[in-house]
Design brief:
heterodimer; A: mainly alpha; Formate dehydrogenase/DMSO reductase fold; Cytochrome Bc1 Complex, Chain D, domain 2; two-stranded antiparallel sheet; elongated; B: mainly alpha; 12 helices; globular
Chain lengths: ~525, ~375
């Protein structure tokens, strides 16, 4: 978070709180869009066929729709504003100043949307058919329009396009992922219209009506889900390949949630088709299960989007910890370069302990952790660093060396550490208190795989193209010698001093991998 | 700690329109939000008073049910009209507002949770009110208490946002954000000021209902008029006292703004006070004559002027509090001509569409409003 703003210390993780609010909101707000179209189309159908039973159900479904969307959807939407203001004030401030007219336009649509929804709901008893449907259409069009606006700004955060150069509203709005994301989200919205309809359908006693309702709901769900892979492909295609590479392994969160999203989407699809087996007898439990799995799929999708956006909160402009990636006029000294020069204790406004000369450096380190890391990490809860340190057995010296390459880890998922050497020492001092490891313990691992996992796996991967496998000399002695001075191999490498035993074990493990997996070795590297 | 050292720097993006545009939008939308909030909170409080405070239980219950059916719509009205001032507040005062919000982060976050519960409570009461009034009453008590608590938290946050000197002490004492602004001398009078305004305007809400039912059910409508009108008068009389306490609790320099130091503020203050007193007399006259038109038209007209004056005074007071730290000239301005006209156009279209929706529903002519 920011050094410019105070950081809200959420014990279980600010990022987790944000995710919970956001996921619950999108699961309802997409229903608010798709469900609007569902209402008007179903009403038209029922009236055309003079279908009293369907109309009766739709009236009850409208109440459910209002109670879910106008109450929870609207309040949780405001909840997102509250939460981002608390957790990412710098990003919020930027988004407000750059896009306030977008938000203001969205507010106009929202205002129309809410009014139309309520009049549609209360109008069931009072309005003649055509007029009632008119309110339904006004509602849907306004809801869709508000989605268009929010989608433009959300996608701007992921793919900021040329905005970072020209700071023009529409350049950022119509960014590369704007349209694919809109199409994708609209398909999700239509599927959710059916998924929520299944819930009220399953409560019907009349088996005949229930069967019709279930089939009608599936007509909304199945085709929408079926086109998602194609729309997803389009979406992914517009994301820069190096960003999308996160989901192929290097970034655990993105990789896992991408898998969850695909699996849960497939499960949702299958369960939906299962509802067709005996539609007249579909139990409430099944409809709730479909909704729950769909919530999981949607949540996973949002997790992937947020994860691959890292290290940024606004792509190529602002890091997740509220530092600007490049020095810009008016950034208040909060770019990485400026903080590197001036130091955190001199730049930050919200730090109580600025004295780095004292013995207790860990106290300053604790504050640096709050300022630079807590936007995504906790000490021992959500993305708890204690857990990572325990896995890797890093002592204080190694932590400090690793801090220098923070920006390279996991395909660049994290912002670089910003601050002076003394400050990185202080942060290392604090982090080493979380999971104390002695230097001898750090050097204890002696099998190559463990040495790799503990020291290399943050940046290197077991893959044929990885420089560890392509560049490291085959000859064990030469390779081991090369590993004594990592920065001379590649200037961005941390200056790790692995003991002889570990270097040799690593080299032999690398050679075993090469043989076992058939990894080639470039001629240049072999020399 | 020098407060100037902790006030965040604004972000590098320029204001996308001149300062005054946002100022006008902020004050105007705040006015609308506060009126809707007053209907909601005042209506809720008066529903409870009718339910438990009425000497004629049947009549009291009927008023309770009548109000309970209306309240669910007032929540989205308040929230929707609240989003706009929240947006424009962030445009101009983000550096203060985000910081004070973070200092009292958990209570501020919980506003949303409480609002959701209160909202469902209002719906519950409106659905149940035909059958089980007992439980609907209890749920309504909970909802109204939650709305009161939310109002109290708003008073805390907005007073804290204009007191940067208190931020660091509170924040570093509890970085998890379990803070309030209870030591603020104006906090309680300010909260009571808003609360009494809500009760008064809630009284007007009953007067509006009386007018809508005047011909269809005159006996009941007259009771509504009397109850609403009295609530308005008593709350406004109490407001005069609380208003004086609020004024007295302000730091001297700020108090004097309304007593001569700032001409505009002083004129608004005089109009506000005279308007409020005038409204009491008007209402009293309307009640004596049982003139619903007077109560439902002239009193609100006067009161609208009073609330407008108060909204502007509130803004002047905020800027006075922030004077050492905030200068409109700090903003770079780069008007987004490619978007602003679109907003204005859509805003105008939205307002027209909104009225068309109400008109086609019959809400403007009162044809269907009786149900």
């Amino acid at each position: 978070m920011a050094m410019n703003y105070p950081v809200w210390d959420v014990t279980f993780g600010a990022g987790l709180l944000m995710a919970m609010v956001a996921i619950l909101h999108v699961f309802v707000s997409h229903f608010a869009v798709g469900g609007g179209l569902f209402l008007v189309i179903t009403e038209r159908r029922a009236r055309r066929n003079n279908d009293v039973a369907l109309l009766g159900w739709l009236k009850a479904h409208t109440r459910f729709f209002v109670l879910v969307t106008v109450v929870f959807g609207a309040i949780s939407g405001v909840g997102i504003w509250f939460t981002i203001g608390l957790i990412a004030p710098t990003a919020t401030s930027n988004l407000i100043h750059a896009y306030v007219w977008g938000w203001a336009i969205e507010w106009v649509f929202f205002f129309v949307e809410i009014t139309a929804a309520l009049l549609y709901y209360y109008g069931w008893e009072k309005l003649e058919a055509r007029l009632h449907e008119w309110y339904g259409w006004v509602y849907f069009i306004a809801a869709f329009a508000s989605m268009v606006i929010i989608n433009g700004i959300i996608t701007f955060m992921l793919t900021s396009g040329t905005w970072t150069k020209n700071h023009q509203f529409w350049k950022g709005f119509f960014n590369p992922t704007c349209f694919p994301s809109l199409a994708f989200r609209f398909a999700v919205a239509l599927a959710l219209a059916g998924i929520y309809a299944l819930i009220t359908a399953s409560l019907q006693k009349d088996a005949l009506l229930k069967g019709r309702l279930v089939r009608w709901s599936v007509c909304w769900i199945a085709p929408s889900l079926a086109v998602l892979p194609a729309l997803g492909w389009w979406y992914i295609h517009k994301i820069p390949p190096e960003v999308w590479a996160d989901v192929r392994g290097p970034m655990p969160t993105a990789t896992h949630f991408a898998l969850f999203a695909v699996v849960l989407l497939a499960v949702t699809f299958t369960l939906t088709l299962l509802a067709l087996v005996k539609p007249g007898r579909m139990p409430l439990a099944l409809s709730l299960l479909v909704a729950l799995v769909a919530l999981g799929a949607m949540g996973s999708f949002e997790f992937v989007r947020e994860a691959i956006r890292k290290p940024y909160v606004i792509a190529n402009y602002l890091y997740a910890n509220s530092l600007y990636s490049d020095t810009t006029p008016g950034d208040g000294g909060f770019s990485v370069d400026e903080v590197n020069t001036a130091g955190i204790v001199h730049s930050a406004k919200w730090i109580a302990n600025r004295d780095l000369t004292k013995k207790d450096q860990a106290a300053v380190g604790r504050e640096i952790f709050r300022l630079e890391c807590e936007s995504c990490h906790t000490t021992d809860a959500y993305r708890g660093v204690k857990h990572y340190l325990a896995l890797r057995q890093w002592d204080r010296t190694k932590i400090q060396a690793m801090l220098s390459v923070l920006g390279l880890m996991h395909n660049g998922a994290m912002p670089p550490f910003a601050g002076t050497d003394a400050e990185s020492r202080a942060l290392a001092a604090f982090l080493s208190t979380l999971h104390p490891v002695s230097a001898t313990a750090t050097a204890a691992a002696s099998d190559g795989q463990t040495v790799f996992d503990q020291n290399c796996s943050m940046c290197h991967r077991i893959s044929p193209g990885d420089t560890l496998f392509t560049k490291l000399p085959k000859d064990p002695n030469a390779a081991s010698k090369a590993l004594t001075d990592l920065p001379s191999l590649f200037p961005a490498m941390p200056d790790l001093k692995l003991p002889d035993r570990q270097r040799l074990a690593l080299v032999s493990w690398v050679n075993t991998q090469r043989k076992a997996r058939g990894f080639g070795i470039s001629a240049k590297g072999a020399n | 700690m020098n407060p100037l050292n902790v006030i965040p720097t604004i972000d590098p993006n320029p204001l996308p329109a001149p300062y005054w545009v946002f100022k006008v939008l902020l004050v105007v939308t705040f006015f609308l939000h506060i009126v809707a909030m007053n209907f909601l909170l005042g209506g809720g409080v008066l529903a409870l008073v009718a339910r438990w405070g009425s000497r004629k239980p049947d009549l009291g219950n009927r008023m309770f049910l009548d109000l309970a059916r209306k309240l669910p719509v007032l929540v989205p009205a308040t929230v929707t009209l609240g989003i706009a001032p929240l947006l424009f507040l962030q445009v101009l005062y983000g550096q203060f507002f985000y910081t004070s919000s973070i200092v009292m982060a958990w209570p501020w976050f919980l506003v949303l949770v409480m609002l959701t519960i209160a909202y469902y409570g209002f719906y519950y009461a409106s659905f149940r009110s035909g059958r089980q009034i007992g439980r609907a009453g209890a749920v309504m008590v909970l909802s109204v208490l939650l709305i009161l608590l939310i109002g109290f938290l708003f008073s805390n946050n907005l007073t804290l946002s204009q007191s940067p000197s208190r931020w660091a002490g509170k924040y570093f004492a509890d970085t998890a954000g379990w803070n309030l602004n209870l030591t603020e001398p104006t906090l309680i009078p300010r909260f009571l000021h808003f609360f009494l305004a809500a009760v008064a305007v809630g009284g007007l809400f009953l007067v509006f209902l009386a007018q809508a039912r005047w011909t269809a059910d005159n006996a009941y409508a007259r009771q509504l008029l009397r109850f609403g009108g009295k609530a308005f008068m008593y709350a406004t009389m109490a407001q005069v006292v609380v208003g004086i306490i609020l004024l007295a609790s302000l730091p001297r320099a700020l108090r004097m703004l309304f007593m001569g130091d700032n001409t505009a503020a002083s004129i608004l203050f005089v109009i506000g006070v005279l308007g409020a007193i005038g409204a009491i007399f008007l209402m009293s006259d309307a009640l004596r004559k049982e003139n619903v038109r007077m109560a439902a038209l002239y009193v609100p007209a006067v009161l609208a002027v009073v609330i407008a004056c108060m909204s502007i005074m509130r803004d002047i007071l905020r800027d006075a509090y922030l004077k050492p730290f905030f200068h409109p000239a700090q903003f770079a301005i780069h008007t987004q001509w490619s978007v602003l006209p679109l907003f204005l156009l859509l805003f105008l279209g939205g307002v027209i569409l909104w009225f068309v929706m109400l008109k086609r529903y019959g809400l403007l002519t009162g044809k269907r409003a009786a149900t």
